[in-house]
């Protein structure tokens, strides 16, 4: 028997509480699901900087969400290319995590867009070092419900 749920935001709770769903009495909403102390900015991990060939003063946009089709990291790459083509002068790096196939696909998109500032990371059992080098995190997603299914 379920005695409670933990939600990361109120909209998630509201969606799951739509009738005729179960409404456990001990449900709690933790806004953003973030441990503020743990999520506070930390110094960039020197070992991760070295392994990713980054410098401590590099400004890094990054995502730890993987690069599946629904994560739309391609849109971020295209946006970064538009910034540069539009005359943007602030130097930055883009750090993405994915498997071998995803990295190859993303590298093609980056090359087509004229980006030479993308760094890739494979799976990391402990992502804290990787995450520490990211100055601005991003997460773009396409809902799974937007996927078109065909039979044939």
Write a structural description.
The protein has helices at residues 10-16, 46-51, 73-85, 100-113, 128-132; strands at residues 6-7, 28-29, 60-63, 93-97, 118-121, 136-137. The chain is of the alpha/beta class and 152 residues long. It has two domains: 1-35, no CATH class; 46-146, Glycogen Phosphorylase B (Rossmann fold, 3-Layer(aba) Sandwich). The strands form two sheets. It has a four-stranded parallel sheet, covered by helices on one side. Strands 1-2 form a two-stranded parallel sheet. Helix 3 (73-85) runs parallel beside helix 4.
Summarize the structure.
The chain is an alpha/beta fold and 152 residues long. It has five helices and six strands, in the order E-H-E-H-E-H-E-H-E-H-E.
The CATH superfamily of the largest domain is identified as: Glycogen Phosphorylase B
CATH class of the largest domain: Alpha Beta
Measured as a percent range, the helix fraction is 25-40%
User: In order across it, which strands form the biggest sheet?
Assistant: 5-4-3-6
Rounded to the nearest angstrom, the distance between the terminal CA atoms is 41 Å
Class per helix and strand makeup: alpha/beta
DSSP, total strands: 6
Tell me the strand percentage band: 5-15%
What's the architecture of the largest domain, going by CATH? Answer: 3-Layer(aba) Sandwich
Order of helices and strands: EHEHEHEHEHE
| Biggest sheet descriptor | 4 strands, parallel
Chart the SSEs and their pairings.
Layout: E1 6-7, H1 10-16, E2 28-29, H2 46-51, E3 60-63, H3 73-85, E4 93-97, H4 100-113, E5 118-121, H5 128-132, E6 136-137
Parallel strand pairs: 1-2, 3-4, 3-6, 4-5
Helix pairs in contact: 3-4
């Amino acid at each position: 028997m379920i005695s409670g749920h933990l939600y990361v935001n109120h909209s998630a709770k509201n969606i799951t509480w739509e009738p005729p769903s179960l409404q456990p009495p001990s449900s709690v909403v933790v806004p953003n699901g973030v441990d503020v102390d743990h999520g506070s900015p930390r110094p960039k991990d020197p070992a991760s900087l070295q392994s990713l060939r980054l410098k401590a003063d590099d400004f890094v946009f990054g995502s730890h969400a993987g690069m599946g089709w629904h994560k739309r990291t391609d849109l971020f790459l295209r946006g970064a290319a538009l910034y540069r083509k539009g005359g943007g002068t602030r130097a930055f790096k883009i750090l993405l995590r994915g498997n071998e196939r995803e990295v190859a696909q993303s590298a093609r998109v980056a090359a087509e867009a004229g980006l030479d500032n993308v760094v890739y990371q494979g799976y990391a059992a402990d992502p804290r070092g990787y995450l520490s080098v990211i100055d601005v995190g991003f997460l773009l997603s396409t809902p799974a419900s937007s996927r078109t299914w065909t039979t044939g």
